[in-house]
Amino acid sequence: MTKHWERALPPGYRQTYVIDAKSTKISIILSLGALAITAAVFMVAVLMIKPKDFFAHYSMSKYMLTAAAIIAYIILHELTHGAAYKLLTKQKLKFGFTLTVAYCGVPDIYVYRTASLIALLAPFVVFDIVFGVAVALLQDPWDKTYAAALLALHLGGCIGDLYDTCLYLFKFRDPRTLMRDTGPMQTFYVPEI
Questions:
Q1: Which whole-number Å values give the CA distances from 1 to 4, 7, 193, in the listed order?
Q2: How far is Cα 8 from Cα 108, in angstroms, rounded to an integer?
Q3: For residue 104, what are the CA distances in angstroms to 18, 64, 74, 136?
Q4: pLDDT, tens digit, for every residue of 1-48?
Q5: Which pLDDT tens digit goes with each residue over 89-130?
Q6: Is the Cβ–Cβ distance between 105 and 93 less than 8 Å?
Q7: How far apart are CA 66 and CA 60, in angstroms?
Q8: What's the sign of the alpha-carbon dihedral 38, 120, 25, 74?
Q9: Distance between CA atoms of 148 and 151, rounded to whole angstroms?
Q10: How many CB atoms lie within 10 A of CB 7?
Q11: Res 47: pLDDT
Q12: Cα separation, 133 vs 55, whole angstroms
């Protein structure tokens, strides 16, 4: 059986990189990136779906439903991270919200690269499928546009997860790489040998 985590940092490891979503600089960069991704995906969707009089069609009940769907999605996104972490580590999870980030982490352990990648990408994969299928199957252009808006928000909201994934794919390729994920902060450790 593959070991997915360590209780303590093993000897011979050194800290190499820290991402702190609570830092002003990182939160601004991630927020601007999320906004750019969300806007780009939504604009492409609107150009493809071509709904007419989008804002004229919108009602207060649709605003409320969309707001509720966004809040539910954020919670489900973090719970999906948590489900992956729980299945792989069986350790205590930490959930929370700040002004700029919702998060889930396992702060009391160090997680190996493969398990981290699974937990990072779980919401990305699950909700790409959920929202992608909704966009594909819904017939009404307005319903399709709302589903596309949720897909766009989802993809923008995954920016931190995708950034960490890119670090693993291009910088921290050693399978022995460990990450301590406190939720808003991820610290990467690599073996010195």
A1: 9, 17, 24
A2: 8
A3: 16, 26, 11, 30
A4: 689 999 999 999 999 999 999 898 999 999 999 999 999 999 999 999
A5: 999 999 999 888 899 999 999 999 999 999 999 999 999 999
A6: yes
A7: 10
A8: positive
A9: 5
A10: 9
A11: 92
A12: 24
Token pair in block for residue 39:
């806007």
pTM of the shown model: 0.92
DSSP string, 30-48: HHHHHHHHHHHHHHHHHHH
Separation CA 9–CA 136 (nearest Å): 46
Q: Which two tokens stand for residue 180?
A: 């301590």
Q: Are 184 and 101 in contact (CB under 8 A)?
A: yes
Domain boundaries, the chain: 5-50+58-191
- CA–CA distance from 71 to each of 77, 96, 142, 154 (Å)? 10, 13, 20, 11
Place of tokens 């990305």: 124
* One-letter amino acid for residue 63 of the chain: Y
